[in-house]
Amino acid sequence: MNKDELVKVALCGGGKVAVLGASDKAHRPVSDVMAYLKAAGVVLFPINPRVEGKEILGLPCLGSLAQIDEAVDIVSIFLSSSMQEGLADQIKAMPGKPAVWFQPGAENPDLQTQLTEMGYLVVVGDCMKVAHRRNCTVAHDKTK
Q1: Which whole number is the average pLDDT over 129-143?
Q2: What is the 3-class SS of the chain, one letter each residue?
Q3: CATH code for the part of the protein at 3-136
Q4: Distance between CA 118 and CA 127 in Å, rounded?
Q5: Is residue 5 packed enough to be buried (19+ CB in 10 Å), middle (13-18) or exposed (0-12)?
Q6: What average pLDDT does the chain have?
Q7: Rounded to whole angstroms, how far apart are CA atoms 69 and 1?
Q8: Cα Rg for the chain, rounded, in angstroms?
Q9: Do 81 and 106 touch, CB atoms closer than 8 A?
């Protein structure tokens, strides 16, 4: 699968996305992207140990990827590279083999290379919200 196929299947098709670095603060970019994707029908799993147990956009926030008990299509990273230690092992332990999407500002060349060498599809240099707007037909106004 390549990036274009991933967008069509997971974003346009209402796939499942784990969001690392989810926030309960509405002014953060991650909150805007999550609200957009949720309105577009994407199933979200917010992940942030600092707000574990709280709700974000009406969804329970989990403390780690290990708490997701089903396969997801994408792990979306909104964490700075300094917060990404051990992430390859956490992703490897997940059910299935999700694509890993580094949101702008979360780039980490070492981790990107490691994940690519492990056989993961890695997406860098594009925002999921922008990719959805560019590639998916949305039938309602909530995502504009």
Answers
A1: 74
A2: CCHHHHHHHHHCCCCEEEEECCCCCCCCHHHHHHHHHHHCCCEEEEECHHHCCCEECCEECECCHHHCCCCCCEEEECCCHHHCCCHHHHHHCCCCCCEEEECCCCCCHHHHHHHHHCCCCEEECCCHHHHHHHHCCCCCHHHC
A3: 3.40.50.720
A4: 23
A5: exposed
A6: 93
A7: 23
A8: 14
A9: yes
